[in-house]
Design a protein that fits this description.
single chain, mainly alpha, 4 helices, 64% helix, globular
Length: 154
């Protein structure tokens, strides 16, 4: 299938920049801007929380001495289930989503917010599902048990 060719091809960080640019573009040419109280403060808090969560995921991978490269999940040497991974199976992607939510808040545009579910769908379909297939093949029952106890996003 054509869609399968997109699996694990675009680095998630590149997608964050792409979606951030799209959000800016739609907000620059749209009249759907809304006044949001404390938008700068809320945007900063969302971005800071997102960066902290994503960084916690990277640190956990580094401590476990496993790959952080999202394009080669089959190179994973250890299944990380401690630290931030007790609460979310994808803290780096959750962090990216929070950064984009903060950016949408800062832009205060309805269409910018509307792109957030598209980011989640893309990450689920083309990044997370292929990663989960690779981890399931590599760690079998342990990964299945982990999936039953920790949610994909939150």
């Amino acid at each position: 299938m054509m869609f399968n060719a997109l699996e694990l091809k675009v680095p998630p960080l590149a997608l964050v920049f792409l979606f951030g640019a799209l959000m800016w573009l739609v907000s620059a040419y749209s009249v759907l801007t809304v006044a949001l109280p404390w938008r700068s403060a809320v945007a900063f808090i969302c971005c800071a929380a997102g960066l902290a969560i994503a960084l916690a995921g990277v640190v956990a991978f580094r401590r476990a001495k496993t790959t952080v490269n999202p394009l080669t999940p089959e190179a994973t040497t250890t299944m990380v289930t401690s630290g931030i991974y007790r609460f979310t199976r994808n803290p780096m992607y959750l962090g990216f989503l929070l950064v984009l939510a903060g950016w949408a808040m800062y832009l205060s545009n309805v269409l910018a917010f509307a792109l957030l579910p598209l980011f989640v769908w893309h990450m689920n379909r083309f990044q997370i599902l292929p990663e989960e297939r690779a981890l399931g093949a590599k760690f079998s029952d342990a990964f299945t048990a982990y999936k039953c106890t920790v949610r994909r996003w939150l």
